[in-house]
Amino acid sequence: MAREQLGICAEANLHASYLLFNAVEGQEPILRQKLARVPLLLARLAEHFSEAQLTGVVAVGADYWDSLYPGARPQGLQSFPLIASDNLAQAELWADLLIQVRSDRLDVNYIACQQILQLLKNSVDLLEQLQGFRYLDGRDLTGFIDSPHNPKGSRKRQLALVEPALQPVFAAGSYMYFQRWHYDLLHWQQLEASVQEEIMGISKIEGVLLPPSRLQPNSHAVACRLGNAENPPLLVAQNMPFAEQNSQGLLSLHYAGDPGSFSQLLAYQLGNKAANAGGEQPQSEQYDLLFDYCHVDLCAAFFAPSLSFLEMACRP
Q1: 6 in any annotated domain
Q2: Which terminus of the chain has a lower count of CB atoms within 10 Å, N or C?
Q3: Is the pLDDT score of 106 beyond 70?
């Protein structure tokens, strides 16, 4: 039975590190060996620093997958869906690999990242090393609870992991979508709390859906449920705020067992509500209201294979 990478369905942590790499050409055979060793490295550190709750995820870029693992490709694995829209600025990041490290100790994250960089040296070039942190009681920098209705328990595994019956080779793997959101906090913080709530679609303190009389059809919460407040989430979110001197926002990871879930969600949030008879996606004015206060400067699509696949793929 395939074993998933533990970081995909792990509970929230206090700190997250994101290592984005480009692979050195011609290093694929040795890189397959090294990537299979990363989960072992993390497991050893997790045992040594047991109180830190250390986990990690190794993910391979959609455009690099065939070079690294030419024998088989996850069904539907594609580049990040950059949907033409006037409602959200986006810029794709050309990254071959993403390794996420999360724990409750920043020093343990540092140790893990340093050991990963040492392991992968000469096979990759580091593009970005990003740092996220838990803010207050699980809120993002807007002041609202982040993803208050995120799936939990067995439902999280059902949504995040590929089903064995659908793709036996990639069972327990997960499609991963990475975005870095920048918030316009200067203008956001000038809004009354009630206006912020109507944009988000949830109460600022409790994180529960607003009553129907106040719930806007294109509020963030409703847009994330494809226009129906009763719809369950399609994906598993792992978001962490980040803050630099002149830039603040959210490092967003979404995991899905179905490669179409994220594209469907993003298209809806951007105003592409439904396909017409010709198959075209008309754009609506009803885009996610939160997009007036943020933009995305990095986005990329990856696949996080199972531990079983990583181990099998590096064998001669």
Answers
A1: no
A2: C
A3: yes
